[in-house]
Automatic annotation (TrEMBL):
TM segment ranges: 173-193
Domain GGDEF: 229-360
Keywords tagged on the record: Membrane, Transmembrane, Transmembrane helix
Protein name, entry field: GGDEF domain-containing protein
InterPro entries: DGC-Regulatory_Protein, GGDEF_dom, Nucleotide_cyclase, Rev_trsase/Diguanyl_cyclase
Keyword Membrane: yes
PANTHER family: DIGUANYLATE CYCLASE DGCT-RELATED (PTHR46663), GGDEF DOMAIN-CONTAINING PROTEIN (PTHR46663:SF2)
Length: 370
């Protein structure tokens, strides 16, 4: 072995571990920056949206009370809801990423104090004339808060700007190192292949319920349509789901969604596919064989008829379900989804908690009758 070759071999032995270590460090830094950006934008935006929503509803109740279309109890109820929303944001230690937006906590604290200052006057049951200055004061506070938050969340602070810039730079750096690493060894190639599969799963599956998501569903429907494969599409919408979240908490809502997903997965061995569209909506695809067979609507009803345990006790499930068939009812996927949506809303109009197959003479089935 020549001295030159020996030098190259030693360099490679040194560079390969160093390169792999550098990639791991860069990926870790990228993940930390991504976490800061995602959590700061998504988590804080959700809490801020809920706060401004409840604030707007409070002003609406004051206006309705002034006009005589709402009573004092409605105003005080919305006041308590808004008061609780302020308290949650200011006292919840988990909402740490609000601190990445300079001045937000201080502004929210000021508006909370302004709100509490109205309580004594509200408790005195003011008449329509007396409520006018309170309504004006509340509207001014709302406008001031929304303008401030709008500015803050459109123009992020220097910490977030620096994190975004660092993330972009790190992405380019990682790309270069990956190209070099692919030339230096097959081990890194295997690692990247496994990572690719994990990312693909994240893109195709719902993180909460671990079933397919809307992105996967759209691809699957297009695939079946291109193959001219007959199938039935069931659109499932949980009734009063927002009320569950509002009264029992989001954890109870999540538990219910997970339970529904587990039950629907029991249909997979029968040639069905299930997916979560988002929120409280699920979908089931029943692929039809060459021979005609009975639809699985009764099985879906039976799965949903059983009580689910959430908020620490068993509770009945209520769902409105619409079904349409391709290509019998529709020649395009968009029309198919629309027909299933029509059928589902017909169930809701008839009292909810049932299933409707989109045919002119088909009956609506009730879960409660199972």
């Amino acid at each position: 072995m020549t001295k030159k070759n020996k030098t190259i071999r030693l360099c490679l032995i040194f560079l390969i571990p160093l390169l792999i270590l550098s990639i791991l460090v860069a990926v870790g830094a990228l993940k930390r920056n991504s976490d800061i950006i995602n959590q700061s934008q998504n988590e804080t935006a959700w809490y801020v949206m809920q706060l401004t929503k409840e604030f707007a509803e409070f002003n609406y109740q004051l206006k309705s009370y002034q006009a005589g279309s709402s009573d004092h109890n409605d105003v005080m109820l919305q006041y308590e809801i808004l008061w609780s929303r302020f308290k949650t944001i200011l006292n919840n230690s988990m909402i740490v990423h609000l601190n990445h937006h300079s001045g937000v906590i201080q502004e929210i604290s000021i508006q909370f104090e302004n709100l509490k200052g109205m309580e004594s006057q509200l408790m005195q049951r003011p008449n329509g004339k007396q409520i006018t200055p309170l309504l004006s004061f509340s509207r001014n506070n709302y406008d001031e808060l929304t303008l401030f938050l709008h500015h803050k969340f459109r123009l992020t602070n220097s910490d977030l700007a620096a994190a975004i810039k660092a993330t972009t730079t790190m992405k380019y750096l990682i790309n270069y190192m990956l190209i070099i690493a692919l030339l230096l060894g097959a081990t890194l190639f295997i690692t990247l292949l496994r990572e690719s599969r994990n990312l693909h799963r994240l893109a195709m599956y719902d993180g909460l319920t671990q079933i397919h998501n809307r992105f996967w569903l759209n691809q699957k429907l297009d695939e079946l349509a291109k193959a001219n494969h007959a199938f039935r599409f069931y659109l499932i919408d949980l009734d009063e789901f927002k009320n569950i979240n509002d009264t029992l908490g989001h954890q109870a809502g999540d538990d219910l969604l997970i339970t529904i997903a587990k039950r629907l997965k029991k249909l997979i061995p029968q040639g069905c596919e299930v997916a979560r569209l988002g929120g409280d909506e699920f979908a089931v695809i029943e692929k039809l064989p060459a021979e005609v067979r009975q639809p699985i609507d009764q099985q879906i009803l039976s799965l949903l008829a059983e009580p689910a345990i959430y908020a620490d006790q068993p509770r009945q499930i209520s769902a409105s379900i619409g079904c349409s068939e391709y290509p019998k009812d529709a020649k395009t996927i968009s029309t198919l989804l629309q027909l299933a949506d029509f059928a589902m809303y017909e169930v809701k109009q008839q009292g909810k908690n049932g299933l409707k197959i989109y045919t002119p003479t088909a009956p609506s089935y009730r879960i409660a009758e199972e």
